[in-house]
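Chain A, query sequence.
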Amino acid sequence: MDIVNREDAPPFTTVDGSTIRELLAHRNSCIRLQSLAEARLPAGAATVPHHHAVTEEIYYILSGTAAMTLGDETRTVGPGDAIAIPPGARHTIRNAGSGELVFLCACAPGYEHADTFLESCG
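Chain A, predicted structure.
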């Protein structure tokens, strides 16, 4: 049985600029086809607009308020909101609150730097 406590998952910065802790993935468990990470963004910070060619993602907001942009649509999201991000969709999330934004990121297949493609802001 693989159980990984958040405190035992070392943080690292992804290609899009968010700091994550990979809770379960092929790098630290028997999981092979997906990954689950905790992501954090300080007040005012945002991920670089990007897309994933293969990976689909689900963001689940734990705390804070954010502006989530998917394609040409931006919506305010907060605790309890789950956001579906299909492969190929340009997306970014910006912390719109005064405290830290904390959210879970589920990826299938699991997160890989090589499947993150940065896009211009315009």
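The two ends are 46 Å apart (CA to CA). The CA atoms of residues 45 and 121 lie 14 Å apart.
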